[in-house]
Amino acid sequence: MAKANPESRVLFEVAISRGEFARIGEETSGLKRSLLGIGFPAEASRRALIAAYELGMNVIIHAKDGLLRLLWKNGQVEITAEDTGPGIPDISLAMKEGYSTAPEHIREMGYGAGMGLPNARKASDEFHIESQVGKGTKIVCTVSPGPHDLQASGYFHSVRLDPARCKGCTNCIKGCPTEAIRVRDGRAFILEDRCIDCGECIRRCPNMAKAAVSDSWEALSILDYKIALVPPSFYGCFSDMTPDEIRAALLAPNGFDEVVDVSVAADLCTEMMRDYIKKKPGQGPFISPACPAVLRLIQVKYPSLLDRVIPCEAPMEVAAWLAKSKMERQRPVKNPSAVFISPCPAKITASRQPVGRGRSLVDASISASQAFLWVQEHKGSRLPEGVSPFLHSSASGIGWGKSGGEMAAVGLVGLAVDGIANVSAFLDELEAGRVDGQVEFIELQACTGGCVGGCLHAANPFVSRMRLNHLVARHHDAGPNRIVGETGTDRPELWFSLDLLPRPIFRLDPDPAKAEAKLSEIKAIEGSLPGLDCGACGAPTCRALAEDIVLGRGSEWDCTFKLRERLGELAEEVVSLAARRPPAMAGPCSEKEKLSQGTGSEGQEVGFQEKPSGGVTPEESSPVDGTVTKKEPV
């Protein structure tokens, strides 16, 4: 399990004095922005705000002055309120609901109802208070994310399936790295808990039944002030436009109001990852957190490797934070919206349901193909006055748009792997311990070629890679943006605020004994299957079909080979039953018996036989119902 950044950092600090009622409301808004900046979960943030507000009000009502501080520590928010004042003579009495020593004029204002400290205690996971009469009071409480904050109850997916287009061809099930797709009744469906939004099924589907859902360009019109977060891979889409011309087209009327290059954030992430690895010599290799599809793949299939993931934010989130906090300019609104131009569905999903934080700072995501069309339509637009030209970042930051760019930027002994199948195969090696001690840093990209190979990218990945290489070469001497040095790598907003946890997809049963029994059943069923992994059953492997059977999602007869084998057995049984007759019914005579009785092969009498007078011959009478048939000469 990858832990959130364990180092303590001050999130918020404010000095307050008696009677500053209006100020505490304003400062609480600042606190809310601080919690949003680190991606603290919504419910935990709500509790932290309640505790901080009540402790601040306690100082304003009862003390002379004090200090309210929020500390980010070990994945928790620690709230401290320390004041100088009269102190609390009886702490147990002060903690009772409704007990108050507030003056009458304070109560007339609607405060001092005696619920402040009890409410702060209820909102906290830990609550400690100490006080000295005549000196002052110190209260420390902590708020931690709950289980529902750490593991989402539902899953958002950018990758969607159109059943009307699906032909049940099973192409997609063979390429899915987490075996998240099944085909039943001629249609595919996705197991939501296993899907990592890598987009491999989109590439493989010949019927275009899979697609990535993003925000539409028209939907962006409801945003008051739009900041485009442009990844370096996007510049590789264009052969006849410079980065300045691309930025100018994005800033055309009805487009974006501001453009921020994600490569600036990539430079900052480079510094963060390098520092993190250097502080842990001999404990690697460590995995880059930049690709959200890879992070989810590790959560699903390789949970033992979660502690190898560097717990810093990806450039997309860092760029959103920089755009909203560090690159502030004269803007018409207080809350600008960050819109990411995404080359892949995994990053769209990360903007809606991030990994390592409770909420994303990215407000919307559009596909790179949509943005490409807009830029082409507004080609030739002029860069608005006052907007600084490209280049904002170093050449290394631009290189993050292609495979190998991270490794080159970090500058440590590393390894770069791209393509989801290659990544999965490599993680098998890493999990088996066959890479330990050989490298310090591992760059993993789900898309072949890196972000330029994303299924939402608007150009050929190899051509885009070439263009990025040229762009890197032209700006080889450029250094990181000054903001990288000014920010530093120790800001809590730059690190995970939640632990990376495994996805509980292989949990067969809550009861361990039943789960073990089901596992044994799966192994037994798998042993009875042919082991060809042909996919004709609608599951990617025989093992997957065995799991489906035990979990009630499939049947043994879904296997074509088992079905044919069973049909053969049934056919033999039908033939055997057809030869059986009731005991009272005579069986058919053999040829010898027929000849000895003077009958031919067709059961007919040879020659004429004279009828007895006044009756019929025995041959003319049916042995069953006594009906008479006329005999013809042979």
**How much strand?**
5-15%
Evaluate the radius of gyration: 37 Å
Terminal CA distance: 94 Å
Number of strands: 16
Low-confidence stretches: 600-611, 613-634
H/I helix tally: 24
Outline the structure in words.
By secondary structure, this protein is an alpha/beta fold. The protein is 36% helix and 14% strand. The strands form 5 sheets. A 5-stranded antiparallel beta sheet has the order 1-2-3-5-4, with helices on one face.
Keywords:
634 residues, alpha/beta, Alpha-Beta Plaits, five-stranded antiparallel beta sheet, 14% strand, globular
Summary, kept brief:
This protein is an alpha/beta fold and 634 residues long.
Indicate the topology.
Elements: E1 9-17, H1 21-37, H2 42-62, E2 65-73, E3 76-84, H3 91-94, H4 104-108, H5 116-123, E4 126-132, E5 136-143, H6 147-150, E6 159-161, H7 171-175, E7 181-184, E8 187-190, H8 200-204, E9 210-212, E10 226-230, H9 232-235, H10 243-250, E11 258-261, H11 262-278, E12 286-287, H12 292-301, H13 315-326, E13 337-342, H14 345-352, E14 364-367, H15 368-377, H16 395-398, H17 405-410, E15 414-418, H18 420-431, E16 441-445, H19 461-474, H20 482-487, H21 512-528, H22 542-550, H23 560-578, H24 591-596
Parallel strand pairs: 10-11, 10-13, 12-16, 13-14, 15-16
Antiparallel strand pairs: 1-2, 2-3, 3-5, 4-5, 6-9, 7-8
